[in-house]
Design a protein that fits this description.
about 40% helix; about 20% strand; inorganic pyrophosphatase (n-terminal core); six-stranded parallel beta sheet; about 325 residues; 2 domains; globular; Diaminopimelate Epimerase, Chain A, domain 1; 12 strands; alpha/beta
């Protein structure tokens, strides 16, 4: 049995992941189901790195970028989850194996080797042959930038665009507390390649489709406030999505709007994903560790202390009652 390699991407970069890729014919890179800007940016960026560092190996990226990320370099060639086949290796970026969609989960289970590149403190590194993990990194894209430097792959505008997308997504455009001095130094390096940072910021963090505006208006209007205003919750059903003509990408930003409401310590958006299957997006002002909360609700849940997610195998009609009975007493106990 090959000994597991655990690498921390700080300082000199080990070569365990690259060695595994070079020994393979086909490798799949994937984020969790419903990937965000950091996971898509990291997957596409790592794909570009490997095209230079491991030429001759087919490296695919799973998922559908949607309207928000479809313009990114390499996004048009992403493999829809339903068309994912068999691979020698599967690497999960910005998430873990418990959050994969069923089609990708099958590819992961059948792979000869598996890996993870992640920065979430709640991530369980068990079950991977190669693990690159740095909880001090502001984003997974920040970790991939360290791989580029360690592997000697030069920055160009396309690679810089992908990395910048993930960095601004995970730092909220450098507004969140995970932004460090090193984050700004890296951003400066990326800008020196000539990328249009204002356009990237607009597409990733600001621009909305008309359907997204209608969906946000509906969800904010129907939000409920409990625990003396400390808890804000709203629910998005599949019927609502069909009625408005919205898709999963149109939900980005809703939970942040709730969390940024005066007096709110905890914001929750309940998203119906299918029969008896609900996704929770959790945000905190800092008084509640939502990574720990997500893990308590779902063994596969997790994320950051201020931003996390979980999946419940529960009818959407029961979720609000369950969350209310759990979260209100917890918030009422806060000083």
């Amino acid at each position: 049995m090959v000994e597991k390699v655990v690498e921390k991407v700080v300082g000199p970069v080990e070569t365990g992941l690259l060695d595994r890729v070079r020994q393979s014919t086909a490798v799949l890179l994937t984020g969790p189901e419903g990937p965000d800007g950091d996971s898509i940016g990291a997957c596409l960026a790592l794909q570009r790195l490997l095209s230079v560092a491991a030429p001759g190996v087919r490296v695919d990226v799973a998922g559908s970028p949607g309207h928000r990320y479809g313009w990114l370099p390499g996004a048009a060639a992403m493999v829809p989850d339903s068309r994912v086949g068999a691979y020698d290796g599967v690497v999960v970026l910005d998430g873990d194996k418990t959050r994969l969609c069923p089609d990708v989960e099958r590819a992961f289970a059948g792979a000869r080797w598996t890996g993870i590149v992640d920065h979430h403190r709640s991530t369980d590194l068990g079950g991977y042959d190669v693990a690159l993990f740095d909880p001090a990194a502001e984003s997974t894209c920040g970790m991939v930038s360290a791989l580029a430097k360690g592997w000697g792959v030069p920055l160009d505008a396309d690679l810089a665009t992908l990395l910048y997308v993930g960095i601004i997504f995970d730092t909220g455009g450098f507004r969140y507390s995970n932004t460090a001095a090193s984050t700004h130094r890296l951003a400066a390096d990326l800008l020196e390649t000539g990328i249009d940072h204002a356009h990237i910021m607009l597409k990733v963090l600001v621009e909305r489709r008309p359907a997204a505006l209608r969906l946000m208006a509906r969800l904010l209007q129907e939000a409920i406030f409990l625990a003396k205003g400390r808890l804000a919750m709203t629910t998005c059903t599949l019927a609502m999505m069909r009625e408005i003509g919205a898709n999963g990408g149109d939900l980005e930003g809703v939970v942040d709007m709730l969390q940024h409401t005066e007096g709110v310590d905890l914001a929750v958006v309940v998203v119906e994903r299918g029969p008896d299957r609900v996704k929770l997006s959790l945000r905190s002002s800092g008084r509640v560790d939502v990574a720990a909360l997500a893990r308590s609700l779902d063994p596969g849940g997790g994320g950051h202390a201020k931003a996390a997610g979980a999946t419940l195998l529960t009818p959407v009609s029961e979720v609000i009652q369950r969350l209310s009975s759990t979260l209100v007493p917890m918030l009422d106990a806060l000083p």
